[in-house]
Amino acid sequence: MEFTKQFLRAKSPCAMGFRWFVRNIEDGVSYQKALDTLVEAGRVDDALWLINAFGPTNEVLEVDGLEAQAIVFAGTIRVRAGIDVDGVVHAGRSIQCGGGIRSGGSVTAGEDVRTGGSILCGEHLRVGGSLRADWGIEAARSLTCGADVRAGWDLQAQDAIEAGGGLFVGQDLLAGSSVQCAKNLRVGGDLRAADSVRVAQGIHVGGAIDGVTHLEAGWGIRAGQYIHAAGSIKAGESLSAGEDIRAGHGYGVFAGLHVQEQSWEVCAQVWAEQLPEGLRSGFFSGPSPFDSAAAR
């Protein structure tokens, strides 16, 4: 793709950005060269506007390591070692990295992100496809992913976490706001969120579920330790905790919301050390035979 003044004008750029482009970028320059020139001049916001206006390419950037002030690439970025960038990392398609990614700004990929290390993101982390890090993932703002998210260690975001697929976390999941998941949520350690957690399918947490406002799953919910919420707890099927299950004051605990009442004894069992206060639906079955407290 080659750029001309007329080609750019058709996308209705701002007047200031268009004047700069006319003065500094020659007609007929390649798309990626235009992006590189903007980034080198410190006009990263203009480069992001350009890539959002014209979309991705099939070009591939393949290097041993990547260190820069910022990177805006219209295609796929493949790095054998790690990525260390002070500002934004933006790929029109995928990011594949043998090591980790450290970015002082946002990290964005139109398709998948796959790293052999950790991801440390100074702002928003946005992935159009699937996201996988063999180590941990930490975002200083929100995390939004169009498909599955997999973190070998902890997954942390200071704002909301949203996955269009499943969420699979080897250790703890910590969210400074809400968590939304379109499939299953599985956490090896603790699940802690400052707002609501809503999952379309099931929730399986090895440790405790704590700090959440409302907790809701379309299928069952299981925690190896306790389940504490400031609001309501709702499970479409069964509900199990190794210790106690506690909703917020004045709120209820619901199991079997997606099961006929006559099937509660089989499909909507509630397992806990004691009968949860405010249990509104489901069949209480006593201490859990699966998790930590029962094992003691």
Q: Which structural traits does this protein have?
A:
296 residues, mainly beta, 13-stranded parallel beta sheet, twelve-stranded parallel beta sheet, 15% helix
Tell me what you see in this structure.
This protein has a domain of 105 residues. Helices cover 15% and strands 39% of the residues. The strands form 4 sheets. Strands 3-6-9-12-15-18-21-24-27-30-33-36-38 form a 13-stranded parallel beta sheet. A 12-stranded parallel beta sheet has the order 5-8-11-14-17-20-23-26-29-32-35-37. The radius of gyration is 23 Å and the shape is elongated. The model has no long low-confidence stretch (mean pLDDT 92).
User: How large is the radius of gyration?
Assistant: 23 Å
Q: What would you call the shape?
A: elongated
* Lateral arrangement of strands in the main beta sheet: 3-6-9-12-15-18-21-24-27-30-33-36-38
Runs in which pLDDT lies below 50 for 5 or more consecutive residues are none
Tally of helical segments: 6
Largest sheet: 13 strands, parallel
> Strand portion, in percent?
35-45%
Number of E-state strands: 38
Averaged pLDDT? 92
Structural class comes to mainly beta
Tell me roughly what share of residues is in helical segments: 10-25%
- Separation of termini? 66 Å
